[in-house]
Amino acid sequence: MNIDQFYERIINIKKIASVKESKYIEKALQAELSAVVLSIGNIAVIKRYVDLFKSNNLPVFLHIERLGGISHDREGIDFLAHYVKPTGIVSTRNSLIKQAKNQGLLTIQRVFLVDSDALKTGLQSVQETQPDAVELMPGLLTDILEEFKSEVDLPIIAGGLIRNKHQMIQALRYGAVAVSVGNYRLWKETLAGETN
Fold first, then answer.
1. 48: containing domain
2. Is residue 130 part of a domain?
3. For residue 88, what are the β-bridge partners?
4. 95 in a structural domain
5. Which end of the chain is more exposed for a tag (fewer CB within 10 A), N or C?
6. How far apart are CA 133 and CA 157, in angstroms?
7. What is the per-residue pLDDT for 191?
8. What is the CATH number of the domain that holds 108?
């Protein structure tokens, strides 16, 4: 999947499943989603998970810091890119984003907004690495979504602490192009046409 196809998916479908337990893999396969972020697995099973989602034409991103047995360095990224072959990675680390981009993987840089310093350093980090998309956490900070969006020309994904459809719609109305949610019940929500 190339970057334009990914952007088209997140703009049209608007939901990304954050899968944190293997028992929810099947539920993610049954929902209409832009993509899946896997925060589960290890070196022994991750290729099987990725192949399963890809065989269902669903882009799959790996949250590399949460995968067991894979180092967080150039060799780990090389292994993922050449053997596991996900659509891309999610990471908070600039170095991993840069290495993944060099290997042709799509990248989502996760930024935790805990205070005004985190906002400033997050903006600087994203401007330096130029990931393919940015995930802001928590996704309920609507005024910060607008501010971040005005500073970077990248798709913004809102994630973290989103617990219902109303919160999903609010994040989209304030500048997010998609929402990333871990609650499998929200994966079936319809968002098209409700964000204007």
1. 3-188
2. yes
3. 61, 106
4. yes
5. C
6. 7
7. 87
8. 3.20.20.70
Closest CA to 51 of 27, 75, 83: 83
Q: What is the pLDDT of residues 2-26, one digit of tens each?
A: 999 999 999 999 999 999 999 999 9
Rounded CA-CA distance 28/187 in Å is 7
16/97 Cα distance (integer angstroms) = 19
pTM beyond 0.90: yes
Question: Which neighbouring-strand residues pair with 35?
Answer: 16
Mean pLDDT of the chain: 95
Residue 192 is encoded by which pair of tokens? 């098209």
The pair phi, psi for residue 58, each rounded to 5°, is: -115, 120
Residues 123-175 pLDDT 10s: 999 999 999 999 999 998 988 999 999 999 999 999 999 999 999 999 999 99
Q: Are residues 87 and 105 in contact, defined by beta-carbon separation less than 8 angstroms?
A: yes
Structural domains in the chain (count): 1
CA distance linking residue 37 with residue 92, whole number of Å:
14
- Is residue 194 a part of any domain in this protein? no
